[in-house]
Every structure is written in structure tokens, then in C-alpha cells.
Design goal:
50% helix; alpha+beta
Length: 424
């Protein structure tokens, strides 16, 4: 799929998901508003019925106003013209609330304007069967100040959220479904982008492999044509030079093949490591001797700082390969004139290797991909060639050694690769 087509489809999918979520939020808000209005109407009708029954008991014929307190979303005040018996009020409230199927906790109080005091306050709890639990501990409610010249009773519903949400079951289900769809879409987009990135990395690997194999093969072909010339038999010096070129290119091809075959193994399974406890200094001396010419040719000093008694528990062959890979990366990416160092720190339960250089370093976008198979940092057409397998090999071998692998780097400030081997 072309990059432009992928972006268009991704944008359309994102717009569709955002539109779906916005629509759900809009209708959910409408549903909550409607539910609140329905509950308000139901409460007013119930309280009006309670007032009607109290009016018959006290022969009161005046209109009964019902007020909803603004500061308390579900507090209602019912004004009366006569004093009301608290026991009578409690009986009718519970009876009417049960009859209208309002099975929610509520607090009620009765105000006596003659004494300007609250005569009672009771907290009524409904269980699943709809019957109130007697003897529940009273809870004080900060009742608002209102008209002190009238008798009134007030009802407050503390479970304000449950009153509305209890009737939004289908909306809750549809909202969860939309959240699931949005999450699945986000995960699918993440996987698509990841696969696209891996495809680009693998394509770069194929391009690099083609280049790395094509160059020595062309050289071998040209040398073979030259050797086939009969005149070369009379020039032993030229023949030796061509033979040296052949050996060099064959060695180069063999190294490439070994690198690919080594990293083509299934490192998800632990390899057969030959762990042993040995001194580190002799191994570092071998590496310094083998790579000294290459470092000198690039004008890059190599410094090794290791205590003579430092030891490590590791597979010697793989440890040598890992350190060689890190030093080879430093030669490729640090740049001429940069310094490279190996520091070995012997600690109580572990041995720490730090391979550092003072080269160009890496940007955060590059550093987060370090250790991924086939990934190579690209900083232009003249970037060093390779397969993107070296640090992948190092990272996986450290995992198999039960150790840790860490890369610290900033653009323009060099790179530090830290390998930690447990001694147990």
C-alpha cells in the first residue's frame, strides 16, 4: 500500500472513530438530561401525592408548592400551611415512595415555623426488596435556609448519580462497545504502523545485503578475468597481488555469511551456552591486538581500562563476538578522530562492561530502535553499510546470559553501551 493511500485511510478511520465517540457523548448527555427530567417529574408527583394525603388528614385545602433547591440537585421542599405529625409524614413518604417504585435512600426533615426548628430528621435506606431498614443511624444533612414563616418538609436524595445511571443500562453498554471499538482501532493502527516500519527495515536489510554481496562478487569476477589472461603468468608479483585480493574478498564474503547465519538463529530459544568463569584482561588483549590496525587506520585511539583480577561468568566465544560487534559499530559510526574506550568494572555480584565512544551519537528516534532486527541508523546516503543485526545479536545474547543490555546516547555527545553479567 502506498504511503499516501495509507495516510488517507488512516485519517478517514480516525475521523469516523472521533465522530462516533462525539455522537455517543452527545446522545448520552441527552439521555442523562432526559432521565433527570423524568426523575424530577416522578419525585414531584410522589411528593404531591404525599402532600395530598397530608392535606386530607389536616383538612388543608390550600395549594401545596414544591421547590427544588438549586444548590442540592436532588433536594425538594414542600411547603405546608399547617403543622404535620412527624410519624404521619414518615408513614406517607415511605408508602408513596414504595408505591411509585422509587427505591432509593433518602433523608427527610420537618420544619416547625412556630418554634423555628427542625422537629425531626430521618435517613431511610431501601434494600433490594424495597423495604426500608429500621433503626439506621441518622446522618446530619446541611439543610439550606429557606422561608422561616411556613411549615415545610424537605426530602434529599444523597445517591444523586445512582438515580440517573441506574436507568442508563443500554447506554452504558453501547458506550463500552464504542470504547472497545476505539481501543481495537487504536491497537490495529499501532500494529499496522509497526508492521509497516518492520517492512521498511527489512527492505533496507535486503538493499544492504545486495550491496554488501555484490561488491566483493564483482571484484572476484574482475580478478578472475585478469588471472585468466595468459600474459599474467609471466608476472608473478602481479599474480600474488591478485591472489591477495581474492583472499581478502572471500574472507569478506565469509564474514557476511557468518553474520547472517549467526543472527538467523531462533534466539527466542536459549542457545547452548558454555558458561565459564575466566579473567577478562587476556580477552581484551586479544581484541586490542586484532583491531589495533583498523583503529589506527581511522585515527581512533582505543583505551582499555580493566583491573587485572576482573573476572566474568560468560560464554567466551559469544562475549568476544559481542565486544567485537560493539567495537566494529564504533569504527563505523563514531567517525574518524573519535576515541573509543572499554571499561570493565568488577562489582560484588556482577561484572559491568562499558563500551563508549565520543562520536556523533544517536537521536532519540534512533535510540529507541536500537537492538531491533535489521534496523540500521540512516544519516544520509553516505551512512555506513551493514545488515542491522549486530546490536540485535548483542541484545539477545545478553538476555540469554541473564544479564542486561542498555544504550545511552545523545546526538553529538557519543554513545555508551553497557553490558552487565551476573557472577552467580
Amino acid at each position: 500500500m502506498e504511503r499516501r493511500t495509507f495516510r488517507v485511510l488512516l485519517s478517514l478511520g480516525l475521523v469516523a472513530i472521533i465522530g462516533l465517540i462525539a455522537t455517543q457523548v452527545y446522545w448520552l448527555d441527552k439521555a442523562v438530561t432526559l432521565k433527570e427530567a423524568q426523575f424530577d417529574a416522578k419525585i414531584r408527583a410522589t411528593l404531591a401525592a404525599v402532600a395530598q394525603r397530608l392535606r386530607h388528614q389536616t383538612n388543608t385545602t390550600a395549594e401545596v408548592p414544591i421547590q427544588q433547591v438549586k444548590d442540592f440537585h436532588y433536594m425538594y421542599i414542600v411547603y405546608l400551611n399547617e403543622a404535620i405529625d412527624p410519624n404521619l409524614l414518615s408513614y406517607h413518604l415511605k408508602a408513596e415512595f414504595t408505591r411509585h417504585d422509587i427505591k432509593r435512600d433518602f433523608v427527610y426533615t420537618l420544619y416547625d415555623c412556630a418554634s423555628q426548628t427542625q422537629r425531626c430528621q430521618d435517613y431511610v435506606v431501601f434494600n433490594k426488596s424495597g423495604q426500608d431498614l429500621e433503626g439506621y443511624e441518622s446522618r446530619e444533612v446541611p439543610w439550606p435556609k429557606t422561608n422561616a414563616d411556613q411549615y415545610y418538609f424537605a426530602v434529599y436524595f444523597p445517591d444523586r448519580d445512582g438515580l440517573v445511571l441506574s436507568g442508563l443500562g443500554i447506554w452504558a453498554f453501547s458506550s463500552l462497545a464504542i470504547v472497545f471499538v476505539a481501543g481495537f482501532f487504536a491497537y490495529a493502527v499501532y500494529q499496522l504502523m509497526r508492521q509497516r516500519r518492520l517492512s521498511e527495515i527489512q527492505r533496507d536489510f535486503i538493499d544492504a545485503m545486495t550491496h554488501e554481496f555484490k561488491t566483493p562478487l564483482q571484484t572476484i569476477s574482475l580478478v578472475g578475468d585478469a588471472i585468466a589472461n595468459p600474459k599474467l603468468a609471466t608476472n608473478p608479483g602481479q599474480l600474488d597481488r591478485y591472489a591477495g585480493i581474492l583472499r581478502q574478498e572471500v574472507t569478506r564474503l565469509r564474514d557476511h555469511v557468518d553474520t547472517i547465519l549467526t543472527n538467523a538463529k531462533d534466539y527466542e530459544r536459549a542457545p547452548d551456552l558454555r558458561l565459564e568463569r575466566f579473567r577478562v584482561q587476556p580477552l581484551l588483549d586479544e581484541l586490542e591486538s586484532a583491531l589495533s590496525d583498523r583503529f589506527a587506520a581511522n585515527d581512533m585511539p582505543l583505551q582499555i581500562n580493566c583491573a587485572p583480577e576482573a573476572v566474568v561468568v560468560a560464554d567466551k566465544v559469544h562475549l568476544r563476538n559481542m565486544l567485537t560487534t560493539l567495537l566494529d559499530n564504533a569504527l563505523k559510526y563514531a567517525g574518524a578522530g573519535a576515541s573509543v574506550s572499554i571499561l570493565v568494572a568488577q562489582e560484588k555480584h556482577q561484572t559491568r562492561f562499558i563500551v563508549a565512544d565520543t562520536g556523533a551519537g544517536m537521536e532519540p528516534r534512533v535510540r529507541k530502535w536500537v537492538g531491533h532486527k535489521f534496523y540500521r541508523a540512516q544519516y544520509g546516503a553516505d551512512s555506513p553499510k551493514g545488515f542491522g543485526l549486530g546490536l540485535f545479536y548483542v541484545k539477545n545474547m545478553m538476555r540469554n546470559h541473564q544479564g542486561s543490555f542498555k544504550v545511552e546516547s545523545q546526538r553529538g555527545q557519543g554513545t555508551r553501551v553497557i553490558l552487565v553479567f551476573p557472577l552467580a
